[in-house]
Each structure stands twice: as structure tokens, then as C-alpha cells.
Design goal:
Radius of gyration: 28 Å
Number of helices: 25
Structural class: alpha/beta
Strand order of the largest sheet: 1-3-2-4-5-6-7-8
Number of strands: 25
Helix content: 25-40%
Largest sheet: 8 strands, mixed
Distance between the termini: 84 Å
Shape: globular
Strand content: 15-25%
């Protein structure tokens, strides 16, 4: 056939030919438009290559190909012609996974290397015996209806049915006659991706792909259904392309740095579990049994927080939504602590490769005064996909006095300060009046096996007297260089996930109408974006802002702060509070410490390029201050605001009603603040005075949520700190692109942690 089967999209955006071809194979009945949401998401240096066989998409008028060998031979021939001097990644979705596998085999047989094969929501070749019979249009119609391939209303339209069903019928015939069991395994690194809400392809079916490669196989999960590549493109791309940008060398963008769900978020709603092929798995078990170190070993100075932070950042512990793979990171820490003579423990979770790490420095004999101090960090980080980075997110690059990398701020920089300060004491022979335990949690960002799980499943393992974790900030004066205030947080905000849905009706794009669902959703989102809750500083916020009024050298800010704190009416308080936010050098931070906030995380609509969708949805989080607004009242206020233009629902835990979800949140918000009257809090204040002379050291309300709640529920004081100075740009890049911290600030912050621990020495 003279018409090309492959079409390269957007290669001109790479400033020349791409060095990596990402060849995409569509699911049953689909064509290149199924990857429309992937356009522009690939890292720099990668080009999207769409496979369009006869009988599908723009070639729908041609005789469809229904023979797998013909299909795979044709695509392999075109890939060979394009791949010279370039890396090749093959990604197949559903039926496309089988086609990608067969193309991969043909390329390898002719000496063309394949960098990675990725199969998404697809059954393995072993599930196909090639004994199927004929496939009718009725079969195609039933398949399209059952799988949700298209809107049932469209199938009722003969005009649409005539266009939609023949490609489905052709692909079903392709699968029916495919004798996959007779194929041989390929020697290619393989990523098998399971969609956790997929009713058609089970996790067990996806895991059977392990049998079809003699190289390493990694099985991952993503949020979404059978068409997760459309519903959750960032997660699927992260699952498929994670690590490839690093392998290609430095670039302006990388798949894990093009910007979590998670996520809703970027990479993502993706969960990762590594499964080695048989030989690799046996080797890994041998290494683990012998206490071998997986991942990169640390060979620097363990009391240098910058070296430690770089090493931690280089361990890619992205959490796609159901927990990160943290075992290599834990092995590295194990080597660091054991070399210093400190006992360690790795506690596995039910998810393979997802572990907690502990290191314990025991108290001086006979000198124990308190239960252990827990230095609680988290090794997992949010993914780095979706927006363009200018630095590679997992190399720990230092430029202009700044350390860049995912987790540099949240919270591997803090972890490095904890470890370096503690090991400096160990090296000096310091003995403490209590055990000091460093705990690296694996599921803080997302996932079921975090702190609460460990405390529940391993009761007695952690007997905490106090906990020090992430939280308060050190801020400068307006000059950007003079430290002004240091905060230790004593409680967290909590949030509620809310979903909006705007509805109209689906129709052909040739007949647009007023009131389309996407437009309705946009109008409601714009209105919610302009909504502002009342200024309601709680006790901790009032304590902090009173200290800020004394600390700042900006008279206008100080005046606004005093007016806000002295206000006796809501009108005056709102006016003064808005002035505080406007005058602040960190307005987003201070706004979040004063009121309920809304953060919009995702929007979704549409599933076919010629259909005006009948529904459009968006999700956002409402974050509440303890002692502030009642969540039920805010939900009611938002519903009143949007009226009948959209439906607002509370997204609780599985099986939870709205009332139960709101009640659970009220319970969290009722957990008391951690006391300021402890030796740990006082040791921190003394440490700040030594490392930042003249700086106000105050209790504070944290604007986010941490792993502190399970401890606070047990009346264990928990304090949060980011011990290094930050500015607005750094704060904005937390969970964002080009995350970074200052190198010297990290060293000074580590000194603060060192001085805090010095206050807990035996006999101090």
C-alpha cells in the first residue's frame, strides 16, 4: 500500500528531528485521535508517532487489514525506515498491545533495537489461540456498547453506526484470528500497565505479560478504566516513559519533569510495583537475601546535607497515587546508617518494593528521660510530569547556588538535614537522653500504606514521645536576604475533595448549541475561582501573625496585621486580612493560613472529536483550618453559589456517604494542636536563636496536611519544620516545576536541626 501507516506528530517542536520515536497503537476500533490528549505532553526530544492502518481513521474508506502478520510486517517496515539513529518506544493500548508486541518481535528479529515495549490495558498473547470465527456487525455493536467505546446514542444513529462499527469489526476479526500462543517471548524491557477500574482486563491478565519478555518486566497501575490513556494521559505516559528522558542525557524536558494525581495531579494517579522477569527476580532475591544494596550506593560524606540531598533526589521515588517504589532509596539509607554503626530496619508493605525505613540511635545508658523523638520524613515524592522543567528533575543539579530536583523542597531536603545532623552527632559520640529514630515513610503523598497503616499493623514498633516532620517555614524580610521569622507548625489544614458535573446533551459537532456542557462547566469554574471565604485566623494563625507583626520591617504590613488581629467585625477583618495577603512577600502561603481555600486539580470532558459531549466534570479541593469554617456549611454555600448550572458532590472514601465524609473531616479538624510546652519545642526555639540571631521563632498553623494526624490523635506532640529559608518562588514550585532550594540555606537549616538535637543530649 502506498499510503504510509505511520504519521509523526509535532516533530518540529523538538528543534530538529526527535531522538526518540514513541510509536502508538490504538485500541479496538480507534485510530490516531485516541491519543489526542498526548499531543504536547511528551518530553523534549521525543516525537509522537501514530499508527493508522487501512480501514481506520483517515483511511476508513480502504479495505481493512484483518491479519496480524500483514499488520505487523507493514508497521515494522516503516519503523525500520524511520528508526535509524534513534531510540524506539512502542506503546500499545488494549488490542494495540498485541500489535505492538508483534511489531517489536519483527524489529528485534531484523536487528532493530527497541528501547521499551509498553502495553496498556491489554491481554497478553497467551490469551489468544487464533481459533475465532467470523465477526459480524452485531458483534461489533455489542462490543462497542459493552466497553463504552462510544455513546449509545450515537450507535442508534445509522449515520454514525456506518462509520464507527466497521473499524471495530475489523479489529475484532484481527484479534479472533491472532494465534498469540504460538509466538515467542521477546527480549525487550517491558512495561505492563493495568488500569485499576478496568472491568475488561484484570490485573492478573496484565501480569501475564511477564511471560512474554526475557528481559525485565515492570507492572504498574494507573487510575482509570479501560481507556485510561484518554482519561488519565499523564499517568499512562509516566508509566510508559518514566526514566527514558534520563537515559537520553540532559534535555530541557523530561517525562518525569514535564510537570502528579496523580495524579489528579500529574504522573498522576499512577501506582508502581516492580516485577522482574524470572532471571532478574531470582537475582534480586539473592541480593536482598544477602543484604545487598539495590539502586545507587552513597559514597559521599553523610554529614553533608547537600551531598545527601542530591543522592536522595537521584532515587526516583515518584508516587503515582498508590504508593512509591522506595526499596532502592531505603537500601541507600541503610548503607549510610550502617556505615556509621547505627541500627536500621526496613519494613515492607503489601505493595512490592514499597517500604518504610527506620534508623535508631539509642539513648545513653541510664539516661532515658523521654520516649523517642521521631524524625519523620517521607521518601516518596509527587511525580514530575505534565509541565515543562528546565532542569532534569531526578539529577540533583546545582545551578546558581540552588539545588534543583523533585523532592528538593518536599521533602528530601528536610530528610537530608535530619540525617546529616543526626549522623554528625553520632560521629562526635553524642549520647542523647532518649532514642532518636529517623523514619522514612513511603506513602505520604498518596497510597494506603503510610504512617497510619504502619501504626495500625505494627503496634508498638513506634513509641513516640514527640515527632518532628515537615511543616513551618523560615522567611526573609522584604530585602530577600535577612531572615525574619521561623515557624514550627503545631497543626495541619485538612481538605475535602469535591466534584462538579455540568450536563446538557451530546450531539454532532456540526450542530453546536448554547449551553454546551463544557461551556457551563467553564462558567461555574470561573465563578468558583472568584469565590473567597471569610478571613478566620485560628489560634495558631493568630499566634504566628502577631509574631510576624513584630518581626517585619515593613510598616504597612505590620499595620495591616495588627488591624486584622484587633478587628471586631467580619467586614474589618476581611478588609485587613486581604491587605495582609496583598502586602505579603508570600501571599499564597499567608492566604492559606487565614481562610478556607479552593484548589482546582482536574477537568475532563469529551471522548470523540466529532461529538459535543453531554457532560463535563472538574474536581477541586476545599482546605479547612482547624477552628475555622464548618465543612458542611461551606459545601452548602458553594451549592447555593452555583445553583442548578452544575451538580456539586463530595468525594469521600469508597462506600462513604457525603454525611460520613463531612463527619470524618470534622473529626480531623477537632484534633487538638500540639502543645508548645515541651522540651522539643523549646530546644527548637533555642536552636533558631543560635543559627538565626534576632529571628522570631513561633508556633504556627501549617497550610497543608502531613502524616501528623495519627500521632496527634494519640496526644503525641508533632511539630513541622522546613528548616531552611525560602522565598515565594520556591514555595510556588513545591509540587511544581523546577522545584529547588538554596544550597547554603540547606546547610544553615541542617545546623538548626543539629542544634535542636544538641538540646536533647544526655545531661544537657
Amino acid at each position: 500500500m502506498s499510503i504510509p501507516w505511520l504519521r509523526i506528530r509535532c516533530e518540529e517542536k523538538n528543534d530538529g528531528p526527535a531522538d526518540t520515536l514513541v510509536v502508538c497503537f490504538a485500541p479496538t476500533g480507534a485510530h490516531g485521535s485516541t491519543f489526542a490528549s498526548w499531543h504536547g505532553r511528551l518530553p523534549h526530544g521525543m516525537a509522537l508517532v501514530l499508527v493508522t492502518p487501512p480501514g481506520r481513521g483517515t483511511r476508513v474508506d480502504e479495505e481493512p487489514v484483518v491479519d496480524m502478520a500483514v499488520y505487523a510486517d507493514a508497521v515494522a517496515a516503516e519503523v525500520r525506515a524511520l528508526a535509524t539513529g534513534r531510540r524506539t518506544v512502542l506503546i500499545g493500548v488494549s488490542l494495540g498491545a498485541l500489535v505492538a508486541f508483534e511489531v517489536c518481535r519483527r524489529l528485534l528479529e531484523t536487528g532493530v533495537p527497541v528501547t521499551r515495549l509498553c502495553v496498556v490495558a491489554g491481554q497478553s498473547p497467551g490469551d489468544f489461540a487464533g481459533s475465532g470465527g467470523e465477526v459480524t456487525l452485531d458483534d461489533a455493536r455489542a462490543f462497542a456498547t459493552e466497553t463504552g467505546l462510544t455513546d449509545p446514542e450515537l450507535l442508534a444513529d445509522p449515520e454514525f453506526e456506518e462509520v464507527l462499527l466497521p473499524p471495530v469489526q475489523a479489529d475484532l476479526m484481527l484479534a479472533a484470528h491472532y494465534a498469540g500462543r504460538a509466538s515467542g517471548a521477546a527480549h525487550v524491557p517491558l512495561r505492563a500497565v493495568w488500569a485499576v477500574e478496568d472491568p475488561h482486563v484484570s490485573e492478573a491478565a496484565v501480569r501475564r505479560w511477564r511471560e512474554w519478555t526475557t528481559a525485565d518486566c515492570t507492572v504498574l497501575s494507573v487510575e482509570g478504566g479501560h481507556y485510561a490513556h484518554q482519561e488519565n494521559p499523564a499517568a499512562v505516559l509516566a508509566a510508559c516513559l518514566d526514566g527514558l528522558a534520563e537515559a537520553a542525557g540532559p534535555s530541557r524536558r523530561t517525562v518525569l519533569g514535564s510537570g502528579a494525581a496523580v495524579v489528579s495531579g500529574t504522573v498522576l494517579a499512577l501506582g508502581t510495583s516492580t516485577v522482574a522477569a524470572p532471571k532478574a527476580a531470582a537475582a534480586q532475591r539473592t541480593a536482598d537475601a544477602g543484604g545487598g544494596t539495590a539502586g545507587r550506593a552513597f559514597d559521599g560524606d553523610p554529614t553533608d546535607p547537600v551531598e545527601l540531598a542530591v543522592a536522595m533526589i537521584r532515587q526516583n521515588t515518584s508516587n503515582p497515587g498508590d504508593g512509591a517504589i522506595t526499596l532502592p532509596h531505603a537500601r541507600m539509607l541503610e548503607g549510610v546508617f550502617q556505615a556509621a554503626g547505627v541500627a536500621t530496619e526496613i519494613v515492607p508493605t503489601p505493595k512490592e518494593g514499597n517500604v518504610h525505613f527506620f534508623a535508631r540511635v539509642p539513648a545513653a545508658a541510664g539516661a532515658v528521660r523521654e520516649k523517642p523523638l521521631i524524625l519523620l520524613g517521607h521518601s516518596d515524592v509527587v511525580p514530575a510530569i505534565g509541565d515543562a522543567w528546565t532542569r532534569e528533575p531526578f539529577t540533583g543539579e546545582t545551578v546558581g547556588g540552588m539545588l534543583y530536583g523533585r523532592g528538593s523542597l518536599d521533602m528530601k531536603g528536610v530528610n537530608a538535614a535530619f540525617v546529616a545532623a543526626l549522623l554528625r552527632h553520632v560521629r562526635q559520640g553524642t549520647r542523647f537522653d532518649r532514642d532518636i529514630v529517623f523514619w522514612s515513610d513511603c506513602d505520604e503523598e498518596q497510597g494506603p500504606y503510610g504512617v497510619r497503616w504502619l501504626l495500625t499493623e505494627h503496634p508498638g514498633k513506634v513509641q513516640a514521645g514527640a515527632v518532628l516532620t515537615e511543616g513551618g517555614w523560615v522567611l526573609n524580610q522584604r530585602d530577600g536576604t535577612t531572615p525574619m521569622i521561623a515557624a514550627l507548625t503545631c497543626n495541619d489544614k485538612r481538605s475535602l475533595l469535591l466534584r462538579l458535573e455540568a450536563a446538557s446533551y451530546a450531539t454532532h459537532t456540526s450542530k453546536p448549541f448554547s449551553g454546551q456542557a463544557v461551556i457551563r462547566l467553564g462558567e461555574v469554574l470561573e465563578q468558583l475561582g472568584g469565590w473567597r471565604a471569610a478571613i478566620r485566623p485560628n489560634t495558631l494563625s493568630r499566634t504566628y501573625f502577631a509574631e510576624l507583626a513584630r518581626a517585619t520591617t515593613d510598616p504597612a504590613l505590620a499595620s495591616a496585621l495588627r488591624e486584622m488581629l484587633d478587628a471586631r467585625s467580619e467586614t474589618r477583618r476581611n478588609r485587613a486580612g486581604d491587605a495582609v495577603v496583598r502586602l505579603s512577600d508570600t501571599p499564597e502561603l499567608h492566604n492559606a493560613m487565614l481562610r478556607t481555600t479552593l484548589a482546582f486539580t482536574s477537568a475532563k470532558a469529551g471522548y470523540y472529536p466529532s461529538i459535543v459531549p453531554g457532560t463535563a466534570t472538574a474536581e477541586f479541593r476545599a482546605a479547612f483550618l482547624p477552628g475555622g469554617d464548618d465543612p458542611g456549611r461551606i459545601v452548602a454555600e458553594l451549592r447555593s453559589l452555583i445553583g442548578n448550572r452544575a451538580t456539586l458532590t463530595v468525594v469521600g472514601n469508597p462506600g462513604e456517604s457525603e454525611a460520613q465524609a463531612v463527619a470524618r473531616l470534622r473529626g480531623y479538624l477537632a484534633v487538638p494542636d500540639s502543645s508548645h510546652d515541651t522540651d522539643v519545642f523549646r530546644a527548637w526555639q533555642t536552636a533558631v536563636r543560635r543559627t538565626h540571631p534576632g529571628v522570631r521563632a513561633t508556633a504556627c498553623q501549617f497550610e497543608a496536611v502531613t502524616s501528623a494526624v495519627p500521632f496527634r490523635e494519640q496526644n503525641v506532640p508533632v511539630y513541622g519544620m522546613y528548616p531552611f529559608t525560602v522565598n515565594r518562588d520556591m514555595l510556588k514550585r513545591m509540587h511544581g516545576t523546577d522545584e529547588h532550594i538554596g544550597v547554603e540555606a540547606l546547610r544553615q537549616g541542617t545546623e538548626t536541626v543539629y542544634q535542636l538535637l544538641a538540646g536533647l543530649r544526655a545531661g544537657a
